[in-house]
Amino acid sequence: MVAASSTEPPRKSPQAVHRGRGAVGMRRTARARRTAWALRAAAVLAAAMLVAGCGAGSNAPVWTGVPSAGTASAAPGGPSAGGPSAGGPTQSGTASGAGTPSPGATSATWKTYTDPAKKVRFELPADWIVQSTGPAAGAAPGSLHIEVKKADGTFVAALQTGLPVPTSAPCDAAQAKPYSVLNSVPVTVPFADGPGVITPRFVFRVIQGYKYFGSFGLTALATSAQDGKACRLVNIVPGPAGIGGYSFADSVEVVPPSPQAQVAPLSSFDTLAQASAYVRDSGDFADAQRMIMSLAFTQN
Question: Over the stretch 183-195, which tens digit does the pLDDT of each residue have?
């Protein structure tokens, strides 16, 4: 008699079963560890990218270049040198756009100017003109006086060094005028700390007279103001020894001109809204802001 064959697979011993289950568990544990490490690496990478996007570089001005022909004109309703008008709403000592460079597109092509003595350098549109003149009245001997003009000869701003730093003078309340700060951006330039000195900034401020008169440039002097009114606005930075007070602005000092006086180089506006639009949209203003904020002193 032939014994019937069995189709049942041979049974493993309890020890073999235990070893098999242990190997499977180890493989699962290894896979879980690899997955966890991959997730951690992805999280670290994402965090690094987030920090890079929010670092110091994100606070630096970002300029959008356009062909020069597209930036030659001011914004609609922009600055003019017209006569008296009814004016617009009064806003006193207010600030808007603080800490934000002008979003207006700048010229596409730029060059770097360095004075013959290699004391300063700054960037400017490629078709703008630089002219050196004698030191301003009251400036220290050997001081710089550099005027920047557009290609058509229109004055833009002047860089002057060795200027006396004005002291804070009382303001007659009857002569004080409402003023507004429409743009204010910190700038890294040398300065000498002291009473009434603030961190240097590029500013565009408007003071009210028979119109709204605007001026831009560097300043590090607190404005003597009361109730949002001031008698004058000063565009001067108290510099360290070897530089003295310096100004890179369209005007060193701003007071509301009389109807019979020349307005230039100040900008004039019928309303404060027009002044705000000029700061926001004008390519000319964006060019001037970028130029002035690029100032660097190579010698003290």
Answer: 999 999 999 999 8
CA–CA separation, 180 and 73 (whole Å): 24
Picking from 100, 274, 79, the residue whose alpha carbon sits closest to that of residue 203 is: 100
Q: How many CA atoms lie within 13 A of 114 on its CB side?
A: 7
- Largest interatomic CA distance in the chain: 137
Residue type, 100: T
Query: Which candidate, 175, 262, 260, places its Cα nearest to that of 224?
Result: 175
How much is the CA Rg of the chain, to the nearest whole Å? 32
In the chain, domain spans: 13-59, 65-297
d(CA 66, CA 96): 25
With contact defined as beta carbons under 8 Å apart, do 59 and 100 qualify?
no
Cis peptide before 84 (omega within 30 of 0): no
Closest to 204 in 3D by CA, of 87, 282, 90: 282
Residue type for position 231: C
Please report which helix (H) or strand (E) contains residue 216, including its range: strand 212-221
The identity of residue 104, as a single letter, is G
And the tokens for 285? 């203003």
Q: How far apart, in whole angstroms, are the C-alpha atoms of residue 97 and residue 95?
A: 7
> pLDDT tens-digit profile of 36-54?
545 454 443 443 333 333 3
If you ran DSSP here, which 8-state letter would residue 118 be given? -
**What is the DSSP secondary structure assignment for residue 264, as one 8-state letter?**
T
What digits encode the pLDDT tens for the residues 255-272?
888 888 888 889 999 999
**Measured distance CA(204)–CA(200) in Å, rounded:** 13
pLDDT of res. 193: 93
